[in-house]
Amino acid sequence: xxxxxxxxxxxxxxxxxxxxxxxxxxxxxxxxxxxxxxxxxxxxxxxxxxxxxxxxxxxxxxxxxxxxxxxxxxxxxxxxxxxxxxxxxxxxxxxxxxxxxxxxxxxxxxxxxxxxxxxxxxxxxxxxxxxxxxxxxxxxxxxxxxxxxxxxxxxxxxxxxxxxxxxxxxxxxxxxxxxxxxx
Length: 183
Fold this sequence. Notes:
The protein contains eight helices and five strands, in the order βαβαβαβααααβα. It is an alpha/beta fold. It has one domain (16-182). A five-stranded mixed β-sheet has the order 2-1-3-4-5. It is globular and about 50 Å long.
């Protein structure tokens, strides 16, 4: 059973953000956000579960960690597998931070608007055209600078897209939550 965190009088308690990532690129991006926002209560569970994430897995992971009712769970996944959104939607109490077709679309939105239907190969190619050193699973200095400096542009572009459709990314929701926690 998870231990409960107590809220002391007069002191604001921030939620712990439990972030479950699909792969190394997602983990690298969440680690970047963690370093940028310097919010110690972000717990990243970078276990690469692929398509096997379940509610039971999340509960088991949190079982021996202190929790609070304000805590939030996030699933950072790509929607390049057709049944993935159905599977993720069945997991209660999780905010879906999904990109269709892949997280590289979210990165690409920092460079340009992408309204047309796309696929993984197109997103990688477009990203590599703008950042020759881009490698899946890593965020180099050039990409980091773009992800930081064009964050607001990417949020606006992502919000204009239809959630879960191709192309789309809901990673902007995490940015908004982190911005609110930082205030």
